[in-house]
Amino acid sequence: MLKKFNRNLAFDKVSINDLILFSAYSILRNNEICTFDRLLKECFTLFPEPFGFSRYPIWPDSRKLDRPLRALRSEGLVKGDPKIEFFITPEGKDKAQEVGKILRQGKLL
Fold it and tell me: Which residues have a Cβ under 8 Å from the Cβ of 48 and sit 6 or more positions away?
């Protein structure tokens, strides 16, 4: 079951790239295929504020995934294609697990 993370977390201490990586890891950990649409849903479900439209926050903004996904691929943390699916590299998995520990602590302030 997905849960939203505490709204009071300082997301400025965890980058959008890290939130996307953690979301992809969450999907793959549940033995699901990490398509672009599924990743958008996971990001918005877990972290609605950073991934919603600023003017219409009840809707996810897919543009917020485009550049960060390219950066994650160039850093070698994620492989794949938005038209097919994404995979996490071993380095990406390690980093996603670190991000998960930070998020679970809830002490980002």
Answer: 4, 57, 60
pLDDT tens digits for range 56-106: 889 999 999 999 999 999 999 999 988 899 999 999 999 999 999 888 875
DSSP per-residue codes, 2-44 = --PPPTTS-GGGS-HHHHHHHHHHHHHHTT--B-HHHHHHHHH
What residue segments make up the domains of the chain, in order of their start? 13-105
From 34, 27, 7, 31, select the one nearest 103 (Cα to Cα).
7
Top CATH class of 13-105 equals mainly alpha
| pTM of the full structure | 0.86
Half-sphere exposure of 28 (CA within 13 A, CB side): 21
DSSP state letter for 75: T
Residue 85 burial (CB count, 10 A): 18
Taking a C-beta distance cutoff of 8 angstroms, is the pair 95, 18 a contact?
Answer: yes
